[in-house]
Amino acid sequence: MLAEQIATVETENANLKQNVANLNQQFAGARPKGELHPDAIRLLKLLFEHEKGLTVSQIASSLGISKGMAEYHLDVLLDAEMVGLSVRMPKGSALAVFLEAKGRAYLVEHGHV
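Below the sequence we write its predicted structure tokens.
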């Protein structure tokens, strides 16, 4: 009885190891860590050219992507401290997105500008 349980656990362990190996192989072709989505890079480049910053709607329109996708890329870039937010007082209280030093460094170090 115990021998059967040991055999079952060993078989399950071998199957799990194979599944991990398969997943590692699948992820090997994924974007390397530290690489940004092409639209996120385009967003950084857009901000590089607009020192006063842009609103999310302006970014989405300029890049030809939905506002939701622009917000997604901004979330990633905010987490990475590559962009920042400020409030535009003269035109109401619209949030403006601007490029941070880490964003400029990413563009320069990866040859995007």
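Residues 1-30 form one domain.
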